[in-house]
Amino acid sequence: MAFEYGAQKLNIRNPFRFEGLIRSVRGFLLVAIGIYLLIQIQPLLGTDKPRAWMNLFIGGLFVAGGLNALGGGLFQVMRFFVGRAAPASLATNVAREAVNEKEPTLYNASSLHNMLMSKSNPTFVEPIGWFARAVHSVFPNLIVTPWPIRNVAQNLAMKLTKSLVAIVAFLVASLVVTMVFSGTEGAEVGSTVISLVLQATLLVYLGLLWVKLGNPLSRANMVQLGSTTSKGLALVIIGAIAIPILTAQGWIGFWEQLPASSRQNLTETVPLLDPVFRTGSLLALTLICATIIAAVAITLIKARIGMVQIQTSSSEMNNSWRFDLHPRQIFTTLRDLVLMQKRQQELPNRIYLDSNDTGDANRENEQFNGDLLAEIQPLVEDKAEPDVLRWARVGGTVAGQVLLLSGALMLWLGADRILDHAYSMDEIRAMGGNAAQLVSQVFAPMGATAAILLASLLLLGFGRTLSRICHLFWAEIFFKSNIFDLHCEGTVMRATHYRGADRHSASSEQDVFSFDATYFALATEAVSSTFAVSGQHNLEQPRYLLSLAPCDGFINSVVGDLEEQFRRRNEEIHSEKQADREQRLDYIRQEQEARRTGDMAAQGLATPEQRASLEADVVSDRDREKIARWEGDGTDS
Description:
Shape: elongated
Oligomer: single chain
Order of helices and strands: HHHHHHHHHHHEHEEEHHEEEHHHH
Keywords: Membrane, Transmembrane, Transmembrane helix
Structural class: alpha+beta
């Protein structure tokens, strides 16, 4: 769908202005901090070269990331270009005026006709898998939302379920470890080591689970409904029981192989190393961020579900026609005259089906049929948003950018602390410090620094996830349009119309057609939505039909205008017949008067040489009735 400029705009607002503004603020702050760090390089080169190189690395990251965020945010704030061909068609557009559309479609002409006929909506497909069914059982109206929202909801539900299972598994594993080490030698040391391993495993699992979220507006999420399996849950449950037992048994075997001196060293060292690891704090941060994301997402989804009143209805009309017209006029008049008058903003209608065999219906009693399915240009519709949706979306957008900024600042802080630890280690070694001093003054702070770096990565990942979820609810744009479907079939009748005194002396002849047809018309007022993206292909995304409402006024107007055009054309044809009939009767009267007076040449009817033959062919009243029957006057009067 190429961009088509037109002075008459479609009045589609830019949905990303606020989001782009917040994103631009974060980008500006990152660029400012990055420039500050780069400026500090020159003074540090003479006193602290390692820190100067560190500033170069972190400053370069901040400037690059900040410019990316600033540019993307400003791109969202700037003008939202929408061509005259927006939004995408519901199915392949077969109209002569159709542009080269490349966006994917979820429907075809057959499915649209079935929707109107059966009063159903195949957009709301059945969920796949038992877990998806369970999610839709908890949120029964989730099925009437577009596919990207359903995919995100199922994905978040799976993340919540896996997180709860992982936490329960961690508690079970801790209990199993306690039971395994109960009464064994080295139980305290082994319990501490295994607990730290389990905490680290849980932290990595939860972090990767929540940080890893694909783009909800990717093409795959838009054209297909995702399926969620329980394979991951089974692996978590099995691992929660098997891994702690195997790890504990491995530690017991390792402990038994150690000499007494090594056991004594481990018993003294492990309690000192315990404060180095900050897995508890990182777990708390992970759970808090995951809870925030889940709360915002659930609020947005529940509020979005109630925005559109779902209907699956259509208006119907069926009747029969009999007009003195060629059946080809049914579809050409409907498409190029009646429906063209229903256009919105002077844009051509979307034609999804235009198939008929009326062009070959030229013989007496020949049958014909045809179908026409069209959509009037969709108009953007501003849906009334619930306050909870608006504020949750705004709050989630701000929170996501704050998390991203906080993650970047913690990355700077953690990188700056690395050099301090290196200097502290050199000082302790120079002073001949013991192991206890190294652990308390070097390794414990290094553990805190490592926790800061991990926390920065977690915050960056959670902020990215939250921003993507909120972006999905900024991007949805609603449209309203009318869809009209006509099926017509009937029989053609043909007659020959002669011009002149009779068929033997006719100056010309013309084939006159009439049709006797039965039609069935369907129409609906459709509410659809699509998800915009920032960029060149802003509205080249599939459109989802959400609601189909009856529109009796529209279908009555279309069929009424079509029948009015038929009557007008019929009256014109009858007027021409009447004029031609009067002309022929006038000619007959003049001829009879000339024959009576014997002055054919004076009347301008015949030359003197033709008088003998014309006098033998006087038209009587009975002959006049025969002529009327030949010309079809008996049926037209």
